[in-house]
Amino acid sequence: MKFQDRFYSEGQGYFGPRENPLTEAHCNVWDWDRLCMVKVKGTAKLFPPDEDVEVPILAQFADYLSPEVRAVTVDDDGLLAGVSTDPEEDDTPFVAYIPFSVAESLADCRTIQYSKLHELDRLGPGVDLSSYEDESGIPQKVAFKFNPLDKPQRLKMAWDELNLLKDLPPHPNIVPFDRVVLEDVESRVIGFTTKYIPGGTLDNTNVPFRFEWLQQLTELVDFLNLELGIMHQDIAPRNLLIDRDTNKILLFDFDWAACGRNRLLDGRDDVTGVVFTLYELITKDTRFTSIPHWNLNIDMVQSISVWTRNRELDSDVSKFRNFLNDWLATRKSDGGLERYLNARNQLTWPDLPTASDYNIPFELGKNSDGEPIWTTGPRFRRTAMEKGQYCFHWERPPQSNLLNKAKSGMH
């Protein structure tokens, strides 16, 4: 896992005027490596709004914290001043994962228990490299994708991606779906696995780019858009794997995918994605990746007369650009958006079911008369546990611990 991807801050909360440097400030930081929430406490002097300085501060000592630590206090120099294991400090959200028994759309999927997965590596936020033995005792190496956060959009994206992947017809340029992952106690759906492709992605600029890969990409986009009514919406070098055995590229990471108009976003169409991807692959120019998708237009790169080659290619730049231009003209004449919206074999799947766990009421403070205020819906994990609800725990040791153990085992 890349260091810059490890931490995610939910922002700063102030217990008084944020302009007052002495005001107490709390910042909840999610650690994708240890899969836990840590509350960082200090003053407004150290934690000004929207600067997320809590992330580099926590990063200094996160690997050395006990798994029981729920909050840390730092002084105005950012140095560790105290830790707390008080469960009341734990603001980890409760995620009510859907029981497999009520996920009817997944009924025909093969499953694997979480305890049967053996972690091999941490590829990125919410993605592990894992292995397991199948029913025949044959080892399988897979990418395990999961969502440990309760953000509504994340939950919906995870559900949609799982249902989309399991319904996609086999295709030589799409990473194959493998299994639904169930936690061991109540068989709730906590993620899924896909086949692991070890060749790396096109993000590796040392890999020569082949003309046939552009052909494969455009054919795949046509298939997804015009046959299935699916818009990937995140075509990029980082999402294109290289299969060394077949010499093909494979697309993965469908969590932004749209089905028809559902979740369709301006500027994230796959034709635009192909154009900017090819430009980046040839030139290594990544400046357009920082522009919001709604402000992107293919003319930004198409109007550049010379795409300076900064990567090894198996053909002249002109061959790539001529092919791209011909493809763009064909897509434009094919009816564009209308043909996508009226795809012949459009995939559909049900909406994310509402977990009944959120219907259990819990006390949210008291009113002015001292009477308890009862509510339902999202809650902290500690609140759910107090109500006797089953909670899946993701916490794990930092990867550095595992690497150190592996090294010591080699001696």
TrEMBL record:
SMART domains from the UniProt entry: S_TKc
A Pfam family of this chain: Pkinase
Catalyzed reaction equations: L-threonyl-[protein] + ATP = O-phospho-L-threonyl-[protein] + ADP + H(+); L-seryl-[protein] + ATP = O-phospho-L-seryl-[protein] + ADP + H(+)
GO MF annotations in UniProt: ATP binding; protein serine/threonine kinase activity
EC number, UniProt record: 2.7.11.1
Domain of life (superkingdom): Eukaryota
InterPro entries, A to Z: Kinase-like_dom_sf, Prot_kinase_dom, Tyr_kinase_AS
UniProt subcellular location: Chromosome, Telomere
GO cellular component: chromosome, telomeric region
SUBUNIT field: Component of the EKC/KEOPS complex composed of at least BUD32, CGI121, GON7, KAE1 and PCC1; the whole complex dimerizes.
Functional summary from the UniProt entry: Component of the EKC/KEOPS complex that is required for the formation of a threonylcarbamoyl group on adenosine at position 37 (t(6)A37) in tRNAs that read codons beginning with adenine. The complex is probably involved in the transfer of the threonylcarbamoyl moiety of threonylcarbamoyl-AMP (TC-AMP) to the N6 group of A37. BUD32 has ATPase activity in the context of the EKC/KEOPS complex and likely plays a supporting role to the catalytic subunit KAE1. The EKC/KEOPS complex also promotes both telomere uncapping and telomere elongation.
Record protein name field: EKC/KEOPS complex subunit BUD32
